[in-house]
Amino acid sequence: MSLGTRAKYAFYSTAAICLLTTGQSLAADETPHKTQEMAEAQKQASTRIGPTSGTPVNTMISGGGVIARGKLLTQVNSSFRDKDDIVENAGAGARTSKQLIALLKLRYGLTDNLEALLVPGYIYVHRDAYDRFDSDHLGGPNDAKLGINYGILQQKQGDPLSLCLTLGLNLPTGQSGARHPPGNDVWSYNAALGITKVWPSGHRIDGAVGFTQPTETGNLGVRKDTSFTLTGSYRYIFNPNFDAGLEFTVENSREWQQNGVDMHNGYTEMYAGPAINVNFPDWGMWVGIGAYLPVFRDYDAPTATDDIRIDFKLGKMWSW
Description:
The chain is mainly β. 14% of the residues lie in helices and 51% in strands. It is built from one helix and 19 strands.
């Protein structure tokens, strides 16, 4: 081997060794750097975000998270709705009212990806005097919801976000009679797909799309039709004790029938507004309130609708 060939061989060998060594050194430096970034993100999240931070206040909004195995969530949700705004009037008028909905949400973690839920409720409606009718009221239990939530993805298990499938039945627990809401006391089924994403910086989004389908005629000969919902929430978590944000709901329903006759009450409506939570991490409790105003309303007939909705919630997580 000539001297020139040996020199070239030594040069290329030295260069290869240097590149390999440098690459290994960079990789070794990069790994601790990434690990340190992840640790800082986790530390930031733990100091800002509590276990009950950022949950939606609106009674209709769900997300993608599921309850961990062996834990029980109990939550009281209530919604006050003042139906004093008549839409699509056309000179025909409509009966105004005030409505209070109260729900008790019970969710229990069967496994880390599967939970059971039960949601009984009560509704009270005060109807104002209209035409030849005096003021009166309707009230009674709602048709309770029984179902399961399956966590397809769960961020707390390392997934990039939480994705949850809900399948449920509405039980015929509503009462029948002239003093109870029309259309209740029926079997129906429902399904929804929910999503939740939490960032260590304190941002959180929740949302869901779903439907409910009654299967029979209910109280006062009223058969409800399919209803669809789209819901969403954005929140900023200031610290483990306080968060605030904006929430919205969109609901669409086909028209109902009473004794086989169309009621011409199909509608699409959107409500949105601010909501806040105060959290008590040491007790596993939270309380929230939200106020929602109409953004879009379209009705097939003159309808008295909510000029404001005020929702309230109080919840606690139990573990054994």
